[in-house]
Amino acid sequence: MIVTTLKESDRYHVLGEGIQKGLEWLKENDIRTMEDGRYEVDGDDVFVLVQRYTTRLIDDTWFEGHLKFIDIHYVAEGIEYFCYTPLARAGKPVTEYDNVEDDFLYHKDYETAVLMKEGDVVIVYPEDVHMPQRRALLPSDVVKACIKIAL
């Protein structure tokens, strides 16, 4: 898992063309003015999911892992805890693999929580089991982009 800010994210372009395209798209587009939904950057290889939601208690969130995509999570407004544990210590998934959503769901244990604020970016790989949308002390209305990058 990589934690940075959008402002400081150029150094991560070395991680690959898909990550570079996703980060550049974020810098060129103000998701706060966009409708929720899917936006193509490079077809099915790089696309953005713009989302608005209110953060939730841990019992109302999910802990997920992917096989086919890297995620870039970017908070444009609001705050949330972004929880993480390495796949090697996540245990056995509690659901079968969902090919459409590209995820397994796991028990809600985690090792680290990062407080994401406006302008923060987290990059997670398939070995990074993660829980987005968790509230901090109080619920927060969040505007967020999740960029999916095909492996």
Biggest beta sheet attributes: 6 strands, antiparallel
Major β-sheet strand ordering: 1-9-5-11-3-2
Low-confidence stretches: none
- By DSSP, the count of extended strands is 11
**How many angstroms separate the termini?**
16 Å
Amount of beta strand:
over 45%
**Helix content class:** under 10%
Short description:
With 151 residues, this protein is mainly β.
Descriptors for this entry?
mainly beta, globular, 151 residues, three-stranded antiparallel sheet
Which helices and strands occur, and which strands form pairs?
Layout: E1 2-5, H1 17-28, E2 37-42, E3 46-54, E4 63-65, E5 69-77, E6 80-86, E7 104-106, E8 112-116, E9 120-124, E10 128-134, E11 141-150
Descriptive account of the structure:
The protein is mainly β and 151 residues long. The protein contains one helix and eleven strands; from the N terminus they run βαββββββββββ. The chain has one helix spanning 17-28, and strands spanning 2-5, 37-42, 46-54, 63-65, 69-77, 80-86, 104-106, 112-116, 120-124, 128-134, 141-150. Strands 1-9-5-11-3-2 form a six-stranded antiparallel sheet, with helices on one face. β2 (37-42) and β3 (46-54) form a beta hairpin. It is globular, with a radius of gyration of 14 Å. The two termini are 16 Å apart. 36% of the residues are buried.
